[in-house]
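Can you give me the bound-state structure? Components:
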Amino acid sequence: MSTQADPAQPAEAAGPVGGRADQAVVTAPHAATDGQVALTATGLTLGFGTRTILSDVCVDVRRGAVTALIGPTGSGKTTLLRTFNRMNDKVGGYHRKGDVLLDGRSIWHPGVEVMELRRRIGMLFQRPNPFPMSIMDNVAAGARAHRLVSKAGMKDVAERYLTAVGLWGAVKDRLKDSPFRLSGGQQQLLCLARALAVKPEVLLLDEPTSSLDPGATQAIEELVRTLAPDITVIIVTHNLAQALRVADRTIFLNQGRMVENGETRQLFEHPAEEETAQYVAGRFG
Amino acid sequence: MSFSTQVAGAAGETGSSPSPRRLAARARAALRRAEVFRWLGGASALIPVLALGFILVVLLVEAFPAIRINGLHFFYKSVWNEGASYNAQIVRTGGVEHLSGAYYGALPEIAGTLLTSLIALIIAVPVSIGAALVIVERLPRRVASVIGVFLELLAGIPSVIVGLWGALTFGPFIAHHITPVIARNMPDVPVLSYFRGAPGNGEGLLTSGLVLSIMIIPIVASTTRDLVRQVPILPREGAIALGMSDAQCARRVTLPWVGAGIVGAVVLGLGRALGETMAVAMTCGVQLTAVPGNIYTTMTTIAATIFQYLDTAFLDGTGFAVRTVAELALVLMVITLAVNIAARWLVRKVSGTALPVGRGV
Ligand SMILES: Nc1ncnc2c1ncn2[C@@H]1O[C@H](COP(=O)(O)OP(=O)(O)OP(=O)(O)O)[C@@H](O)[C@H]1O
Ligand SMILES: [Mg+2]
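Here's the bound-state model for the whole set.
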């Protein structure tokens, strides 16, 4: 358990939760100035209770790219992903050092409104999780909550985003129906439409295809490709072939440490680290 | 049906090795046993149906003469007169004996029943749902379980004790300290003007409604709490991840998820409120002949009247007063059944829209 801060980034990484954001902006390596970077973690150390799950993670996520997050089970991929839209904040025993910057600004900055942050950084879960309301209401639920659409405009929103995920043809005659009568893959596409309807800048996908069949998986993968470059996508996957298919860049996480972050082909074919080489060769994890 | 054939079929299949005759006998025995269970099951399933039918029929028979004589004005007149009780003159109308001048109109009782229950619901439903959400989502587990114990204790308090507290403490308290202020300051517009006027002495519609709400909150809240606890985390996190507030998540995801069950919980509470006798009888102020003119005035309900008037009714030698009490009971029964049927319809509407198959209540 290496909870020691990286000597390269000393003071701001040790700042208390929520504070020191302005300082972080100043000292963040290049995020604030470099428009290429959407999301940055600096010296992110994080745990629950006495356990440390992430140790001193520093990553840059390139804007408009699809970034795969790979690593053995339990390496902290989900934890890192959920940290990006502050879904961990209320978990019992949560503690954190270091910072995450969105467009150069700390996501824990007091001026950041967490609900607006989550609108900007959307999330799709491992299993589809439709809301108990009609298909149309599902798509528009987030947009309604953020007042992006009037009641009258809901149908248009539903059509636009269901079309975007390729579900419109299948559901256009049953918009008032329960989403739970859709297949698992259709439900996941519906959740994706719902996430897109709030116009996110970053989309976090946590193994979005792990409960789906190959056909539905392919549909989601193709969609993910079309989301970039308008939306920055981070996709957690256990399927290395999937990472190769969809991701421009790949981050390899192992035991809560960021091991390598690079162009996907580069990382798979000429990994800089021995650990990465072993993982992509299927020797552990 | 299918049960017995299955048993027989299974016995027949295994019957290839030992003596076929013994097996046939065993199969017949199994069939008989299955038959017995089928009849037993059928009979016990019928018990509630029979009980309900029996009560309805008995009430109907008992009340029928009163229904004929009291006629429709029983439902819209505000009178309660068992007729001349001295030198009793017995009159016969259409073959039914009653005292001369007997005249009953139960509008105050019916209105009182509906109004007290309405007040109880208006207060109990939001409080219970809010309490359930807070207990499940906000409080540390240990505090939540302590509060749960208190809710169950509260639900178990005998209604006569709640009634006594309402009559001695709670009613006078609000009549002295709270209702005068409200009565004085309420604007004279429709609906709100019902809150104006003399604040009374603490016995009446408002006190009874509030006491009822206190009695049904534990029932509704603890049922709702158990329901909210069952809502899976995944759709709730989905709402939070979408940037919804906790309140939006509760209103649009958590509560609809168990909406049908919550309707059921509310109906349970409503049933209790409609039929509650003792606590209302002790706090209503007993006004048999006038629909409450404002929310503070004395009134009565069907249940309270049945309880309080029965002794007097027995004094009517013609039995007509008792038959009228039976008619009151029948009306209460019909109201309660109607509420249940309406709730069932509502449940079907609520769960029809969206609950996942096999997850709904
Ligand atoms: N709320 C929590 N409290 C305590 N420990 C947790 C909590 N959430 C996750 N962990 C632990 O953090 C570690 C990393 O979990 P995480 O879910 O991030 O892994 P992962 O890389 O997503 O794994 P997988 O590939 O299996 O999904 C695990 O050891 C897990 O037990
Ligand atoms: Mg995970």
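A couple of observations. Confidence is low (pLDDT under 50) at residues 1-33 of chain A. The CA atoms of residues 249 and 262 of chain A lie 6 Å apart.
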